[in-house]
Amino acid sequence: VSWVVSLLSNLDRADLTEKWEDSAIAWANKPRVTLKELVCPSDPSDQSVVAPLAYAVNCGLRDANDPANPSGADLSTALPEKQSAGVFFNHGSYLPPTSSGSPAANPATKQQFMSIAQMTGRDGPANTVLLTENLQTTSWVPPNGTDKIPAWRFEWHVGINWQPYDMGANPSIPPAVKINGALDAKEGELQRPSSRHPGGVVMSFCDGRQQFVSDSLDYLVYQHIMTPHGAAVAKDLAMPDTGAPNLRNSSYDPASLQ
Question: Quick check: is 29 in a domain?
C-alpha cells in the first residue's frame, strides 16, 4: 500500500488503519474510500477515481528495476535505491513482476529510509521537497482486490521523481518531465509536479512549510530541492565535477524559488 495508509490515524481515521492492519480482512475487502484531505478541488479527474489521490511524495530517482514510464520521457539509471536521492522509497519495488505475495527485498539491494535527522547537516529539511501536487497520481490504495501487483506498484502512481540529467552537458529537458508539463497526460503516466493552478504548483517541504513554486523553475534547482544530499547522488551518477554547473558542482540558492 502507499504512504497514505501510514498517515490514516493522523487524519483521524484510525478506523481505516485498524482495517488495513487486520490480517483477517481479505485484501479485496479492505476499505477504499474517498478522503477529502487527499483531493484537490482543482483536479477534476479525482471525481471518477476509486480512493483518489491528488498529492504525490518525493520518491527520488525512478526505481532501476521498474519498467519505463509510459510517457517515455524518463531516464533509466540502473542505480539501486540511494538514500541521498529522495525522501520516500518503494519497499515493494523488488517483487518479481508476476508475484502476488508479500514484498520481498532483493538481498543484493538495501532498502532505504529517510528521516529529518538524516537530512540535517546535508541539504537540510527546509531545502528538500516532501510532497506536492500531481494531476497524474491515481489512488492511495490499489483500487480493487486484483491490482495488488504488479500494475499498481510503481512509484508514479503515488509519487514524483526527478530525472538525472547532467544540466551542464544536456541543458535541453523534455517538457513532460518539467513542472506542469503535459498536463493532459493519462493518469498514472507522469511523475512530475503538476496542477491546474495557473503558473505553478504548491510544494510542502520537509520542515513543514508550503510554498507556491513556479512552473518555470530551472530544472537544476528542481534537482536540488528533490535531493536530501544532491552532491552525493550526483557523484554516484558520475556527473562530472568540471564545466557548466550541474547537481554535483553547484550550490542551491533558496532565493531561486522566489
Answer: no
